[in-house]
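Predict the 3D structure for this chain.
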Amino acid sequence: MCGITAAYIYRRIMSIVTTGTLHNMRLDLFSHMQDMPVQFYDTHTHGELMNFYTNDIDAIRPLIGDTLPQMINTIISLVGSMTMMIILSPKLTLITMTLLVLVTSVSVFVGKRSRKYFVKVMRTVSDINGYVEEMLLGQKEVKVFSHEKESVKAFSKFNDETMEASIKSNMFAQSLMPINVNLSYISYAVVAVLGAKACIDGSLELGALASFLLYTRQIAGPVSGLSQQFNGVMMSIAGAERMFEVMDTPTEVDEGKIELVNAINEEGVLIECPQRTGTFAWKDPATGDLTELKGDIRLNDVTFSYVPDKVVLKDVSLYAKPGQKIAFVGSTGAGKTTITNLINRFYDVQEGVITYDGIPVNNIKKSSLRKSLGMVLQDTNLFSGTVMDNIRYGNLEATDEECIAAAKLANADSFINRLPDGYDTMLTANGTNLSQGQRQLLNIARAAVSNPPVLILDEATSSIDTHTERVIEKGMDKLMQGRTVFVIAHRLSTVRNSNAIMVLEHGQIVERGDHDDLLRQKGRYYKLYTGAAELD
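Done. Predicted structure below.
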């Protein structure tokens, strides 16, 4: 009864320890990834990232729950058995230890050669997850273009790589147990023969030999047990290596010190205050000085490349005065979105400087910088939750009334009220129960509720039909009123009322001016607007 109780308590403790450890590892990994730069996510598929939280971390479970306790038990057994064996016969103990070193050497030899294949198994499984996720998200396109057979072929390639790596990893791992078991039998036989000879010579008593052989078997048992778990151990190590590789990846560097604070203006003097007033200021914590946030953004001789030897922007200079609307037009890959990525400090410039109200953006805390910028992207991302939750995502402190007002501003209120539960309607799977245009309207409402001093619209109305675009135009004008706005658009009709239009080609501004000025120049913009050239 005591044994049963002890076994139950042991398994319960190990379950709590294992589950708790994996829980903390997932939490630490997720927290760490929140601080990773955008470049990290641009270079990893979603399936690969998800694999870290599932297969890689779950692979560590056998190591914590089974192998480590058994290793502790093995070490205790080895120490106790070796102590008694030394007392009984130091010479035979030396022989046993020599054979034990041989067993360990074989394990290390096999382990080094199998570990790389276990790592490859984990990597190829990540590739499979990434490819499957990509195919599931693009299933409509797969069927429209009758790409099913090609998809199966591509999947088979990933699957074959996984199978090949699994075969090689298991080939090494499964060979270890019979090798070690046979070596333990050889060790037992050698010790028995030499011990028998010692008994005949009279240097060892028969009872001592019997006890010595018993201890030899006690050593062989745990070692054989560890060999049986070698496959799981190598898989656990491979998963841990991949996870800790991510944990060791440097997080986003933020050397900025200047913070964004709420302020009130009393007789021309800025005073910091805790409540949201609609007036913002940049605070230098070193001096306590406040600089009013006006939305003056300037790029001076900015050069940038995502990868070496491939310049995306070259010597770009422009300015946006407070309240101005600046539009970027140009071919795909001309560098339009890159400029907004640099303003957000998703990436840092290699040459030149970007200033915000006269302050270099790298001196501003990234969290404060991004809090002052509202973005409406071409690709909408809605989260699991209610419609109200998704609008409030732009400002977690917003009241229901403020969220509804933002929805009305974006002209989303009418379709929201037609939903089954209105603002309490649950959205799942990135809002697939809504049309693309409706999702984009929620995206615009989310930006509106954040009430940002600077607004970035990256193809914000590209997913909305022409009629809906005209309907929300007034609302967008209200949203942009009094704000510095950067607009990226393929529809040139949406940028006609901009204060300045920047025409980019090959990472450089080739033309600049307002709509009428550019038409009079009869250059690239004129050709695009009149249809003589196309945005590719």
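The chain has a mean pLDDT of 81.
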